[in-house]
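quick one, 521 residues, struct below
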Amino acid sequence: MPLAPQHPPQHWLAQGRGSPRLVLVVVFVALLLDNMLLTVVVPIVPTFLYTTEYEGANSSVAPAQTEPAPPALKAPLFSSLFSYFDNTTVTVSGSDSPLGVPNGTESSLQPPSSPPAPSRGCLEGDEFLTKENVRVGLLFASKALVQLLVNPSVGLLTNRIGYHIPMFIGFTIMFLSTVMFAFSGTYTLLFIARALQGVGSSFSSVAGLGMLASVYTDDFERGNAMGIALGGLALGVLIGAPFGSIMYEFVGKSSPFLVLAFLALLDGALQLCILQPSRISPESTKATPVSTLLRDPYILVAAGALCFSNMGVAMLEPTLPIWMMQTMCSPQWQLGMAFLPASISYLIGTNLFGILANKMGRWLCSMIGMAVVGVSLLCVPLAKNIYGLIGPNGGLGFAIGMVDSSMMPIMGYLVDLRHTSAYGTVYAIADVAFCMGFAIGPSTGGAIVRAIGFPWLMVIIGVTNLAYAPLCWCLHSPPAKEEKMAILSQECPMQTQSYTKQKPLREFPLTEDSDVEENVE
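---
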């Protein structure tokens, strides 16, 4: 009778650590949590600031309109009372009877001076909501602005020490940011928490995407892996906004962030088991300098497509909830549910076109996607209620999924084709482009809405995407460098199945034996 293995869990982990699929799981979970935190605040922040600042200030001035009166009063403590039964203001003239609506003999009816805001009606304070567009936009943009500044440094760091340690640093910072969100009660603290999230997101996204590109060297497999990883991003966006609005409405502000903090701890445990972020494992090849990559016109075209397509949804995040509060009189739970069609369609688009884009041509997939983004944004202001947003937001999410699932593999392909196969720097550039959309979008979107209105904002960004779409044709057949011409196929450059790397793929994660082999070489 054969003996059972003594340590089956440890043996499974030792075998599994060499599998690229487990690396894909780690990146998927990291992107999922990052984007849940990214979008969970979208429906919470506008209503939280309105409740704490506008209603809080007005309640101190006119407490009689916000506090219910006791059932019986002997003295005339209030000069006027608002009747929710017939929407009239009743002036009480010294009655000893309990508070009731008089029959007209001891009271006079006056038009209401300031109608209250019913729980499911339009909110008061149009001027406050208009100004709030700018403040909320800056708060949302702070994450992307910080991430924009940190990304180049993270790209260089991954080339020096590998991907494992930066991934774990990203988890740690993300956990601190989530806890800070849960217990922040002022705009300043929310702003700091959002900026801190940008630092953690920079480490997680750059290291995660670079890690995937390094373990999946086949073009077809890399495209599928990127589609699955971006599916984690899409799932985070899908869950975040509806989850945040429902939990804030029925449980409280801190509840969604505490749940995310618990999930982040599980992600940290997963990284410790699979990646073992304790040792330095630099890239085997010297990376192309950032300045050289930024002078590559094909990389710039791909980065621009990522930037402008995501800028549309970035402009919607701070402005659409406030526009719904003003024009549709939407309750709190609908502010997050409005993004649900975009999230579901993005999840479908990234997984579907992770496979199809390689067959139909990634440049064509991106060009069609950007055109659909533009048309969808132009249709958003035509909606009269939340149901009218289903079509435009669904088309927007599906089209952005087409662009992202095509452009992320193209970035790795262009580095293999025209530069050295070290991916940390190029995915730092891709993340910078992504962050520029989420930095410029909210920060300028709020100001544009305040100046010319929400419909014109959608026209501007929609036309921009339509005008940029033809540039994706440039990625149809990018030329290879002379020294790589013999390696890559000439007939169908964008569908080359595999690349010859400077050295064979090493076991992942790196072990002591792999370092010895590298030194011998």
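The chain has one domain: 18-54+125-277+288-483.
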